[in-house]
Amino acid sequence: MANLTLVYGMRLLPAEEVAEVGEAPVVLKNGNAARVTMHILEGSREEIEAQLRQSIDAFFDFYPEI
Hints:
The protein is of the alpha+beta class. The chain is built from one helix and two strands, in the order E-E-H. It has one helix at 45-61, and strands at residues 24-27, 33-36. The protein is flat. It starts with 23 loop residues before the first strand and ends in a 5-residue tail after the last helix.
Protein backbone atom coordinates (compact mmCIF):
# COMPACT_ATOMS: atom_id res chain seq x y z
CA MET A 1 0.00 0.00 0.00
CA ALA A 2 1.19 3.52 -0.79
CA ASN A 3 2.07 5.99 1.93
CA LEU A 4 -0.90 8.09 2.98
CA THR A 5 -1.33 11.61 4.35
CA LEU A 6 -3.89 12.35 7.07
CA VAL A 7 -4.97 15.99 6.86
CA TYR A 8 -6.43 17.46 10.03
CA GLY A 9 -6.49 20.62 12.09
CA MET A 10 -7.19 21.45 15.70
CA ARG A 11 -7.85 24.62 17.58
CA LEU A 12 -9.42 25.25 20.97
CA LEU A 13 -11.85 28.16 21.19
CA PRO A 14 -14.38 29.19 23.84
CA ALA A 15 -17.51 27.11 23.11
CA GLU A 16 -19.81 30.13 23.23
CA GLU A 17 -17.70 31.96 20.61
CA VAL A 18 -18.08 29.47 17.72
CA ALA A 19 -20.83 30.53 15.32
CA GLU A 20 -20.04 28.46 12.22
CA VAL A 21 -17.52 25.92 10.88
CA GLY A 22 -17.04 25.23 7.19
CA GLU A 23 -14.94 22.95 5.02
CA ALA A 24 -11.21 23.46 4.58
CA PRO A 25 -9.81 23.48 1.03
CA VAL A 26 -6.94 21.21 -0.01
CA VAL A 27 -5.02 21.65 -3.28
CA LEU A 28 -3.44 18.48 -4.69
CA LYS A 29 -0.15 18.42 -6.60
CA ASN A 30 -2.02 17.50 -9.80
CA GLY A 31 -4.01 20.74 -9.52
CA ASN A 32 -7.24 19.11 -8.36
CA ALA A 33 -9.04 20.42 -5.32
CA ALA A 34 -10.39 18.48 -2.37
CA ARG A 35 -12.23 19.53 0.76
CA VAL A 36 -11.82 18.44 4.36
CA THR A 37 -14.91 18.36 6.53
CA MET A 38 -14.26 20.04 9.86
CA HIS A 39 -15.73 18.62 13.05
CA ILE A 40 -16.54 20.11 16.44
CA LEU A 41 -15.95 18.40 19.79
CA GLU A 42 -17.10 20.16 22.93
CA GLY A 43 -16.69 19.48 26.61
CA SER A 44 -13.93 19.23 29.17
CA ARG A 45 -10.42 18.24 28.16
CA GLU A 46 -11.14 14.63 29.14
CA GLU A 47 -14.43 14.57 27.22
CA ILE A 48 -12.81 16.07 24.11
CA GLU A 49 -9.93 13.57 24.25
CA ALA A 50 -12.36 10.64 24.57
CA GLN A 51 -14.51 11.93 21.70
CA LEU A 52 -11.42 12.45 19.53
CA ARG A 53 -10.23 8.88 20.15
CA GLN A 54 -13.67 7.54 19.21
CA SER A 55 -13.74 9.73 16.11
CA ILE A 56 -10.32 8.49 14.97
CA ASP A 57 -11.34 4.86 15.49
CA ALA A 58 -14.57 5.42 13.55
CA PHE A 59 -12.69 7.20 10.74
CA PHE A 60 -10.40 4.24 10.16
CA ASP A 61 -13.38 1.86 10.28
CA PHE A 62 -14.42 3.46 6.96
CA TYR A 63 -11.13 2.26 5.43
CA PRO A 64 -10.75 -1.41 6.46
CA GLU A 65 -8.22 -1.97 3.65
CA ILE A 66 -5.65 0.25 5.41
